[in-house]
Amino acid sequence: MASHIVGYPRMGPKRELKFALESFWDGKSSAEDLEKVATDLRSSIWKQMSEAGIKYIPSNTFSYYDQVLDTTAMLGAVPERYSWTGGEIGLSTYFSMARGNATVPAMEMTKWFDTNYHFIVPELGPRTKFSYASHKAVSEYKEAKALGIDTVPVLIGPVSYLLLSKPAKGVEKSFSLLSLLGSILPIYKEVVAELKAAGASWIQFDEPTLVKDLDAHELAAFSSAYAELESAVSGLNVLIETYFADIPAESYKTLTSLSGVTAYGFDLIRGAKTLDLIRSSFPSGKYLFAGVVDGRNIWADDLAASLSTLQSLEVVAGKDKLVVSTSCSLMHTAVDLVNETKLDDEIKSWLAFAAQKVVEVNALAKALAGQKDEEEYVSAIKEEISKVVKIQEELDIDVLVHGEPERNDMVEYFGEQLSGFAFTANGWVQSYGSRCVKPPIIYGDVSRPNPMTVFWSKTAQSMTSRPMKGMLTGPVTILNWSFVRNDQPRFETCYQIALAIKKEVEDLEAAGIQVIQIDEAALREGLPLRKSEHAFYLDWAVHSFRITNCGVQDTTQIHTHMCYSNFNDIIHSIIDMDADVITIENSRSDEKLLSVFREGVKYGAGIGPGVYDIHSPRIPTTEEIADRINKMLAVLDTNILWVNPDCGLKTRKYTEVKPALTNMVSATKLIRTQLASAK
């Protein structure tokens, strides 16, 4: 989902432009000094928006004085009293129009719509001679492009420019300013041509007068103007931006039928009725720039409400054509809240200045983009599960897994669905090397409001006649890999988690899942350092595991898995867990696990010491795996040995997984053949 900013404050976070202007006007600094400040401000604004992730970044919204005056300069519409002789308009003429000089007064200044911003009113008449006299829009586009930032050049639209003008002194008040449209459009065409040549792909025309009460003649001017510009803007995406109020129905009808226009921007803060117009009739295939972040105040956005509005507009415009935007230029709000060091923190938390609103716009765009349609999401996950099932069947694996494409982390996935858990955004802790984990926070009583894995396990089982394992994370592992509340004993929290997992086991069994794996990867990890405390820990840890699957039918097979541990000193506790099958990391442990069985410990349940290391991209040969299996059979009965990798395969690529599993199955079949022939 794309994001857009209508415009941005020019003064700088510490009024840098104000001081530079006043220094220049007082003769204390040069034009070069002023331009250096301006260049730095523009650069920082563009970079800020680019780094924030804004896609449609405006240019030509910076001004030394006023954007309407900039347009007057672009059109060369300089009143005669300033004795301008033509050519590119310089700072002297520009500031004389804005502020007057020793011999002539300034042009009139009036309020910009209903804001406290003032603009310089153009003075036009039948004798006004127009010429392309300021290349600022093109220069600033090129300036941004040199920084590696492609912007959307912004121009005051031709019709709004004329409607905001007044008849020059000596011109009849009845003079039709719109009659000058044919005189200024050739200059707009020149500007557009230069922007296209410079590489622009979008152009924004601000036509805010569309929100006013316009008569038929004025509305017709919009239609004729953009019909005239249509060939000039061919090849460009054209955005017409409106703001400050609802757009009347007739104006909306005119706007959405303009020739050559690609996109429409609306103020949806002060335009509740505009929302109704959009929902009832929006042109197919056009972009909707939705101004949901308020550009005229300093309050933080109600992101949930804005997201709800945007979601409703997705249906109207389509996901690819909806753009998150500000309601108007951010020049009407303060620059950056970070500079407010003396403001009360509580009040500060309610606020968002321009810099923060840029972040809000992009946050909304990201939130909207991250929300896949439920049907689309389910379809994508089913497709991946089907792929995983098919691969395993082709490899002739006996008991299958579904690959867990719907899951993130083996603890976080469950924590997100259990009550009593909270999650940080950046609470990363190093696990090994460059790998980090983000432990959840257990802050309250734990329970399971709804089934967590049943739908996907049932879906996977429906795709195969072979047994499909339901995959759960055990209570001890969830506890040991979390930041745990400290107002009650850890074992009490663990029992709560165990009861929640027990409900999930019961639901999986009821759904027809006959093999359920409850991973306890971190059971050994939680063992106290002092041996005198081992027995108590192992007692409640084993009890927690047994809670999860007590009461299942004898036909339901319970598996568990442990990794990266020395199990010899807790082997009797492992036996007490009473799992039907346990798979254990073995390949990196130099087969230390097997030594406990060589020493006489009897294990009657199924056991699967890992036959190859999944943490390495190396693909083991069939011979290597067969050799490992033979070493295991030297101490384990054939009827209890399971052949499996030593851990889950989610960290490996398909190009690594398939040949490794192919060799594992081949080795298993080879040993089976040898055992059968030896009988």
TrEMBL record:
GO molecular function, one term: zinc ion binding
Superkingdom, taxonomy of origin: Eukaryota
Domain annotation Cobalamin-independent methionine synthase MetE C-terminal/archaeal: ranges: 363-669
Gene3D superfamilies noted in UniProt: 3.20.20.210
Biological process, per Gene Ontology: methionine biosynthetic process; methylation
EC number: 2.1.1.14
Catalytic reaction list: 5-methyltetrahydropteroyltri-L-glutamate + L-homocysteine = tetrahydropteroyltri-L-glutamate + L-methionine
Cofactor(s) it depends on: Zn(2+)
Annotated keywords: Amino-acid biosynthesis, Metal-binding, Methionine biosynthesis, Methyltransferase, Transferase, Zinc
Chain ranges passing through the membrane: none
Cross-referenced InterPro entries: Cbl-indep_Met_Synth_N, Met_Synth_C/arc, UROD/MetE-like_sf
Pfam families according to UniProt: Meth_synt_1, Meth_synt_2
Record-annotated Cobalamin-independent methionine synthase MetE N-terminal domain positions: 3-314
Pathway info: Amino-acid biosynthesis; L-methionine biosynthesis via de novo pathway; L-methionine from L-homocysteine (MetE route): step 1/1
Top EC class, one word: transferase
Keyword Cell division included in the entry's annotation: no
Function: Catalyzes the transfer of a methyl group from 5-methyltetrahydrofolate to homocysteine resulting in methionine formation.
Entry's family note: Belongs to the vitamin-B12 independent methionine synthase family.
Name this polypeptide is given: 5-methyltetrahydropteroyltriglutamate--homocysteine S-methyltransferase
Species this chain originates from: Panicum virgatum (Blackwell switchgrass)
